[in-house]
From TrEMBL:
Protein name: O-acetylhomoserine sulfhydrolase
GO molecular function, one term: cysteine synthase activity
Enzyme Commission number(s) from the entry: 2.5.1.47, 2.5.1.49
The keyword Transferase is assigned to this record: yes
Amino acid sequence: MSKEKWSLETKTIQCGWQPKNGEPRVLPIYQSTTYRYDTAADVAKLFDLEAEGHMYSRISNPTCDAYEKKMAALEGGVGALATSSGQNASTIAITNIASSGDHFIAAGALYGGTVALFTNTLKKMGIETTLVDAELPLEELKKYFKPNTKAIFAETIANPAMDILDFEKLSTLAKEMGVPLIVDNTFATPYLCQPLKLGADIVVHSSTKYIDGHATSVGGVIIDGGTFDWCNGKFPEFTEPDKSYHGVIYTRDFGNQAFIIKARVQWIRDLGSYLSPMNAFLSNLGLETLHVRMDRHCENAQKLAEFLENHPKISWVKYPGLESHKHFQRAKKYLKGCSGVLTFGVKGGSQEGEKLMNSLELAAIVVHVADVRTSVLHPASMTHRQLSSEEQIAAGVSPDLIRVSVGIENIKDIISDFNQALEKI
Ligand SMILES: *Cc1c(COP(=O)(O)O)cnc(C)c1O
């Protein structure tokens, strides 16, 4: 049976590292910056991208490579690139496509750090973003496009708005407008959703979340679907010689891997934001149990969401697995599960909410999400603090919103923790 046919549960364990006779069964940490070669000609071939191999761990490394191959297999892409953080993955996914003077469109319900990156830092680099309400009809969304629009960016499950991406509409829009659809699949993970199969062209992750899964290592990854036509006239950087790389033409020389190879040999080479071998090892180890953990995260979140929805002191709960969620049907259509993240507000607003958070004993207040331990966070005063109130509302963050990252502890203990904290308000 070919590896492509393996189910995802098998791929999380078996893809990537392929030991040869007598080599370690488990992916080793190649903690080496450099690689030895017999002749200068061998190294020249690497520089010319004529031979496959590693030359320097700012650009590639065998531990990272095995992890990248596994991620590409899980998402169904032609290649992957591991980055130092999720933020860096989003940055490179955009800068690899758009230059100073270009523009792209992003669905407004986004992670706060991504909003800050797009609206401030990329703007300083001359790349303009328009944040749009992705729920608008297709024809309305088209009006935001300009001749210099180069991409659409959106999250599968928005953090923390919990909106579910309308893949059909957004991928149709991207195709009709001749730009790639980039999807941040962090909350869903490839176990719950594979955006490339739903019309996305490029996937990014903060592997810091469920991929690592244990809150040990910050990292990011970009996966190239290999499907986008960079030769449609809008992307000269892909079809004209790269002066910084002695005249390489990415589409001519690398075919359907043009995007991911360009990202590595231009952006990772020059910015130096590659993932470290140690963190690649930990992310790969996390992946080996992804499917088992995600099932429990989803099951626990569903039960906690139902408990909270029926509690008299709760004013609202948002979880796409609840029938009351505006995207309940869409979640069923596109996702195998709704992740371990839910949001809610308590009667009495943010003041009572803060009291509740402080009264939790098992669930901790941490600036993190999507690991095995149950945790809570108040985005308006934490992750989304740097945004204006209007930007917070656009990102789906109301002042009273509490985000719960439901862990994989016994659900009875999680519910009784929330129950005792609710009694104190
Ligand atoms: C955390 C997060 C990021 C940023 O990732 P880092 O690894 O923290 O840089 C991007 N997108 C989403 C959806 C996130 O949750």
